[in-house]
Amino acid sequence: MFNSEIETMSESKMKELQLERLKWSIRHAYDNVPHYRKTFDDAGFNPDQFKTLDDMRRVPFLTKQDMRDAYPYGLFAVPLSKVVRVHASSGTTGNATVVGYTKNDVEVFSEVVARSLACYGVTENDIVQNAYGYGLFTGGLGAHYGAEKIGAITVPISGGNTPRQIMIMKDFGSTVLCSTPSYALNIADYIESNMPDFDMSSLKLKIAVMGAEPWTEEMRQQIEKRLNVDAFDIYGLSEVIGPGVSAECTEKSGLHVFEDHFYVEIIDPDTGEILPEGSEGEIVYTSLTKEAFPTIRYRSKDITRLYHDSCRCGRTLVKMDKVTGRTDDMLIIRGVNVFPSQIESVLMQEEGTEPHYQIIVDRKGTMDEIEVMVEVNEKVFSDEIKVLDSLAKSLAHRVKSTLGITAKIKLVEPKSIPRSEGKAVRVIDNRKK
Ligand code: DLL
Fold first, then answer.
1. Which of 102, 170, 186, 399 has the fewest other C-beta atoms within 10 Å?
2. How would you classify the pairing of strands 230-237 and 207-211?
């Protein structure tokens, strides 16, 4: 463990620590950020009245829209001279969200990523190939600083240029790959289709650190088999810090939240009510130590569940389920709610399909229609049309019986769905056009 005192702290001691830090963080936001002062005042909430964790329900939420409205620096809580780094979200819809870090925040960020890497068994003896994009995205620099903090050799290759990734992986003897799960599969694809004589055992890769987008257990199996690694989940979001909010351990069952820095709650996305431990809902974050960009009750839109168990790794930190969808990713097809990851999971159950797919949603008249394009492997694609037809039918049947929606399945040729070096685009919703 990277920080065993924290990672094995008793639940009651952790709650004490959180309470003390929450008081500071809420007061810091109120005193230094006009937005918080206004929303707290409007809600009749005074930080002096914050006495127990139960008082959390009285604190107003922060939304993505609030962040956009504050573009670029409106939510910073320290003078800009104290800020040493900024990151930003892509801002495909509306203003980008800009987040800032003081020196101390960068230190915390590095620590939580280092803890995550230690969860998977990464040590100073590893060579970490970091294929997360460097730039305004938090993945690149986030993983980089964490890997350096562990003392591993850090290879800052960034995303893309797949042939070069493979060459470096081999020549440098990389033992750890950090990338999005969809990009890890692109690397596997490239090797399999362009380098038939490539000897996988010439690679020293052991661990894949996968995050930044939802990925299923089926996808984990593919990555593990095809790249001959153990693949672990790393989760995070730029608004809260970046990667390293939570991480799986070698048990691969749930992610431990680094709750000495991030206070987590699950709410009902419709009513905003706090739900009891174990319920599924939207996860809400409050930063406990961040100086430059405190986030108080930030509504992440990510859907998960929080629970305590006695994890065999020895960590006592609260666990969250793998995030399989966001409230704004959820498709409502003729009244049935589905997440892209549920469709992925069903698709991957049939032999011959590849984890490359795209979901196209349209509205014909008043009816929602959904078409799922999924790649099949070379062998299946070169089969008779009859075989392809029956696979498509079988997939449509599975989707219907498992998820309750009628989807048109279109099997497409290998590599016809656009690849991404970062987060994959899974849904094209023409209803929003
Ligand atoms: O994606 C931070 C990150 C970088 C995490 C590298 C892990 C590895 P954002 O670009 O702000 O930050 O996107 C955050 O991505 O709210 C989730 O919806 C999704 N996400 C991130 N990690 C996971 C994961 C980075 N492991 C948004 N599983 C979050 C599922 C994830 N979804």
1. 170
2. parallel
205 confidence band (pLDDT: 50, 70, 90): very high
For residue 238 and ligand 1, the question of a CB distance below 6 A is answered with: yes
Residue type, 132: Y
pTM equals 0.94
Q: Are 106 and 236 in contact (CB under 8 A)?
A: no
Under 8 Å between Cβ of 248 and 233: yes
Rounded Cα distance between 193 and 121, Å, is 31
Nearest ligand 1 atom to the CA of 255 is 26
Best CA proximity match to 377, nearest among 413, 424, 416, 419: 413
Containing H/E element for 332? strand 331-333
Task: Write down the CATH superfamily of domain 331-432.
Answer: ANL, C-terminal domain (3.30.300.30)
- In the chain, % of residues over pLDDT 70: 99
Place of tokens 């996808």: 219
For residue range 256-305, list pLDDT tens digits in order. Answer: 999 999 999 999 999 999 999 999 999 999 999 999 999 999 999 999 99
**Apex 422 CA angle, 122 and 102, nearest 5:** 65
CA of 284 to the centre of ligand 1 (A): 14
H helices present in 243-337, as ranges: none
In the chain, ranges of CATH 3.30.300.30 domains: 331-432
Continuous segment of H or E residues that includes residue 63 = none
* Whether pLDDT at 330 is above 70: yes
What fold does the segment set 1-326 form as a domain?
A: Rossmann fold (3.40.50)
